[in-house]
Amino acid sequence: xxxxxxxxxxxxxxxxxxxxxxxxxxxxxxxxxxxxxxxxxxxxxxxxxxxxxxxxxxxxxxxxxxxxxxxxxxxxxxxxxxxxxxxxxxxxxxxxxxxxxxxxxxxxxxxxxxxxxxxxxxxxxxxxxxxxxxxxx
Amino acid sequence: xxxxxxxxxxxxxxxxxxxxxxxxxxxxxxxxxxxxxxxxxxxxxxxxxxxxxxxxxxxxxxxxxxxxxxxxxxxxxxxxxxxxxxxxxxxxxxxxxxxxxxxxxxxxxxxxxxxxxxxxxxxxxxxxxxxxxxxxx
Lengths: 137, 137
What we know:
The structure is a homodimer of 137-residue chains. Chain A has two domains: 1-59, 2,3-Dihydroxybiphenyl 1,2-Dioxygenase, domain 1 (Roll), CATH 3.10.180.10; 74-137, 2,3-Dihydroxybiphenyl 1,2-Dioxygenase, domain 1 (Roll). The longest helix of chain A has 11 residues, at 14-24. The first copy, chain A, is α/β, with parallel strands linked by helices. Chain A contains three helices and eight strands; from the N terminus they run E-H-E-E-E-E-H-E-E-E-H. Chain A has helices spanning 14-24, 84-93, 128-134; strands at 3-10, 28-34, 40-45, 52-57, 74-80, 97-105, 108-114, 120-126. Chains A and B meet through strand 1, strand 4, strand 5 and strand 8 of A and strand 1, strand 4, strand 5 and strand 8 of B.
């Protein structure tokens, strides 16, 4: 197989999701286009990452349109962050939905927020206490 | 925000999904681990790509366990491929579920298959006819 290129998520309100992923999550729009059946796709990229996220929006007239319902296929989108607790607080202040506040698991700190459609976003990073200890501060 | 690192999908049968993503889709296992509540995660990478895919499996005892149901959050996982029709045929022969056979849209050729849990996988590449024309063959 050739190259796993990106993940596409379905969004119910394109403007709302674009605002969330650019203004709250800090991603940048790379390109957008319209499918033959009227659907719209937008490619986003986070700074310092080659991973792409595609937003897919379908009009009711599209053969791919389905009533939106939350399911279990997509577990989460994951972001590596330097400071999990500070990032969690900042994202929630900017409008992300808090899901699980920061907790520690071994060497890692984790937290979850969700996007406007209810998609879970994981924040994961090295536990700050450990990092300070390792660097001798 | 720091770095969009990977997409995690929930799988119902970890062995079945691992076989699919490694033997059919050609990905490679990078690491695996167990979460405190008993869930298992496996990171996969496709050759020639920095994108990662995480498989998440939860035992019934996990607080994150939910009855599996298909929903609309995850639109698809996308692979760039050199030869869309040939790749579509090969994947279906190896056990992927055919969803939409190859078709052309502008400069692109597209097709969809799905994984053992019903997750749609897009194959996208330049239309071969156009490529031959462009290179003068």
